Amino acid sequence: MLRVFVLILVVILLTTAPGLATQTYSRSDLVRFQNGIIDYRSRINSRFKKRVRSKTRLIIVHTSELGLKSTLRVVSKGKRFKNGRTSPGGHANYVVARNGTVYRILDKKYRADHAGLSMWNGVADVSDISVGIEFVGYHYAPLTAKQYKSAGMLLFILKRFYGLGDKDILTHSQVAYGKPNRWFSKNHRGRKRCAKNFDRVQAGLEPTWPFDPDVRAGLLTPDPMLANVFYPAPGAFVYSGQKVSHTLETDVISQQNSAWTIAGEDYNAPNTVYVLPSGKTLAGHRVASSIGWARLPVGTKVLLNQETKQVREQANSIIKTISGRMTAWSHAGGAYHAASTIYFLPSGRSLAGCVISDWDDLPSGTRLVVGYKGPFNITKHKTAYRIAGVKFKDPKTIYHIPGRGPVQGNKVPDFSDLPKGTGVYLPLAG
User: Fold this and answer.
1) Alpha carbon distance 51, 173 (integer Å)
2) Cys-Cys crosslink for 188: which of 74, 221, 289, 301, Cβ 3.0 to 4.6 Å?
3) Residues near 388 by Cβ (< 8 Å), separated by ≥ 6?
């Protein structure tokens, strides 16, 4: 009886404790999932030369640091580097959108050029031995529940196909390394921040390695921040997806967050843009000569993969526009889904951020304001003045006029002619 009881207890623990057992799926679940994968292989750059991997030892997960359309374009068509050179694409085998949709960019048997300068357990060029998966999103923002659901099934399939275990699934930030720079005097871990927010528990995986084998072997020096995320000392905070530390959740420079902590090797890239508290913007490669890295003020926002001119224009606008690389996250950061972030869709609808589940669902041309309350609708007896008081003409008072979209108070030509149904939005502060 004792043996039976112990066996039952073990089964219960393995099937209920998160992260302690490999997730299993029914055949119908897996078939349905695989049939839902969107085949994007025909979009691969014609310059990309396909090469079958001789062995597959790892699966590497990334965060794209872009919206969905830009992610699909970059991984299939290629990207531009600091020196102006362009790549031929083929930068991932799969892309997982924030709504859970999976795109097959390159057949899993082919080598994707996704890991760059990398090493794991003494093996350099991790792209040669791994499948690459891009999650649409940012390393300082949580991935979605739908992404984790798709990740669970995709990883289950790949593990079974290649005979891999949970410890063979790593993030790009774990395997990428960099050459000496102003922060590190030797080759070091931490070149990329990519997917440091990946929650293994939500993906149905057991814990990662308890140490960095290349740091332990003396091949690389550790990055303190990443070491604390992946291999914390006993009793230290461990990221679990339920609670996020300051350095994991923000793209804003603080006493704890430096440019390196947030952006890694991309800290001085031309397409990394720093938005200072004053509203001034600086491209990464101009910070040193303009104000110096040590003088970047607390509160400076760091945006990856942006165009400086576009960021500068948007930083000075109260009403911001989603277009190209400027996603909802680029504008609002973690407040993209707050009730006080208001979206004005091209269709004429207005929605609070708290009812929008995915910024990739927002069409280009959507406008938004951050830190607002409303709408307060104008009626026959409730004028703009009665709603906003003396600030009814203020540029920070926003009018959502049917057929015209959001308009700042100082740009409304005739308040006596505002149509019925006009909504007024007022800033939370002042």
Assistant:
1) 25
2) 221
3) 394, 397, 409, 424, 426
Please report the pLDDT score of residue 44 as a whole number. 97
Please give the angle made by the CA atoms of 222, 228 and 229, to the nearest 5 degrees. Answer: 110
Q: Please name the amino acid found at residue 113.
A: D
Residue 33 tokens, joined: 């999932």
Query: What pLDDT shows up at residue 83?
Result: 67
Task: Give residue 318's pLDDT.
Answer: 94
Backbone angles phi, psi at 325, to 5 degrees: -85, -10
- Mean pLDDT, 10 residues at a time, over the chain (430 residues)? 41 38 80 97 96 98 93 92 81 96 98 97 97 94 93 97 97 96 91 95 95 96 92 55 43 89 91 92 94 93 88 90 86 88 94 84 90 94 93 97 93 90 91
The per-residue pLDDT for 219 is 96
CB atoms within 10 A of CB 126: 25
For the chain, first and last CA: distance in Å? Answer: 71
Question: What is the arrangement of strands in the sheet containing 38-39, beginning at the earlier edge strand?
Answer: 38-39, 102-104, 94-96, 130-135, 58-63, 169-171
Residues 6+ apart with CB under 8 A from 89: 44, 45, 47, 48, 74, 75, 76, 77, 78
Task: Give the separation between CA 73 and CA 77, rounded to whole angstroms.
Answer: 5
DSSP, residue by residue, 191-245? S--TTTT--TTTTT-----SS-HHHHTTSSBPPHHHHHHHSPPTTS----SSS--
204, 152 contact by CB (below 8 A)? yes
Contact 195, 169 (CB under 8 A): no
Report the SS3 class of residue 58: strand
Q: What is the largest CA-CA distance in the chain?
A: 85
d(CA 315, CA 310): 9
Residue indicated by tokens 């952006």: 263
φ and ψ of 47, to 5 deg: -75, -15
Strand pairing partners for 376?
A: 424
Tokens 């996704």 correspond to what residue?
Answer: 114
Return the C-alpha torsion angle 288, 293, 294, 296, nearest 10: 110
Site of tokens 């280009």: 364
Strand ranges, E, within 236-336: 273-275, 281-283, 301-303, 320-321
